[in-house]
Amino acid sequence: MKLHRHRLLPFMLLFLVLCLTPTQTTVAQQDETGTAERKGLISFEFPWVVEAKVEVNLTAKLINLASKSVSNTPETTELIQMLEGIYVRTYDRKTVDERELVGYFQQKLREDKWKILFKIKEDNEIVEINLLFGDDKVYGIFVIVIPRMPEEVTFVNIVGEIAPKRVEDLLRNLSNFGAMDINVSGKLKEQAIPIENTIRREMLAVKVDYPPTIDGILDDACWKIAPQADGFTHVRTKKVIEDDAVVKLVYTPKAIYVGWHLYDSQPNKIITVQTKDQIRFDSAIEDWVSFSIDPSHTHRFDGRTFFMANPLGKKYVKIDPEDPNYDKRISQWNVAAKIVKDGWIVEMEIPWEMLDYPDTKEPIRMGINFDRFQARTWTHSWWSNIGAAERYKDDGHWLHVLPPPKSADMQGLLNTLEIDKHGE
Q: Most buried in the list 93, 159, 363, 418, measured by CB within 10 Å?
């Protein structure tokens, strides 16, 4: 695993550049009093003798000292202040048993009830990111990186009291913070797209163990780690709208979950008309949102399914009216919505069985988009702006999504497991 000095944050340069080499490396500042009890810290002490090829120990004292002299943005300063330690170990796979090391850490993470954010296997590497939650904070991030070349395995442990909304910022800069090229920023690159780039946006697919409760309240643990879509732009002017929206997206083997927070500076003027689920919304007379998905990535209108809701939680889905199971399919998905002090909130639960998706054993890319209509201002906006002409080739992308098997027997098993997991 190669070192990328040109990508390091300045405070890392103070402690690493002069010391790190591609062979035998140690940067050790031992200030570990009481660290054994620190939440989020995974000990690198093993029951057997293991020698690290690269060892980095940055304690809070070193991080804070460096940040005072080199940090030049409030955002960076805030993020650094949340950190209590950054610890990196790289081991030569020629001298250690890689499977034994990985298995040892994975067992510790399970015992301490860490949650897997995502695990991606690609041709050139395997990356697994784990989070430790508690009290509405993330206390630890633990990353396992196994590249195909060179012959190394790397573990990164970041400790602190990190606001969940800043986890994505930290992950985007993980190669910088850890002084290692683990390519996480590329996997989360949808968050790095500048706001002026309003089309062909991308979002990483995140699979969760426990789905949210569909109640119109975005307080579930899965929403804290979900990638988010924001920066909605006007369909014609392409400018960022005054009342933005934030949408989060996760999935389980059973369903896709979409959480919306639609900001509105005048929530008392939100317009709702439909009081029952509809075959079609009159899209010009009330506020609504729409999630569209193109599972086979066709970039065509007829390849997409639209799931719409208004501020009362009334819903509409575009399905062929000639479908003999039309009424059943309409009732298959679930929506809850609430008007709140700064706008309105929507939660959607969309079962996979409603969608015609590829039967695959490997993660794939799907087309997705989010759009919103604000009736008070007559503003139609998109996340990935396909324009007034609706160029579906400019839809956003949902990356590394692994849908459930399509066989009836396997789908029935997944549904049974879902019920057993919740004890129902």
A: 159
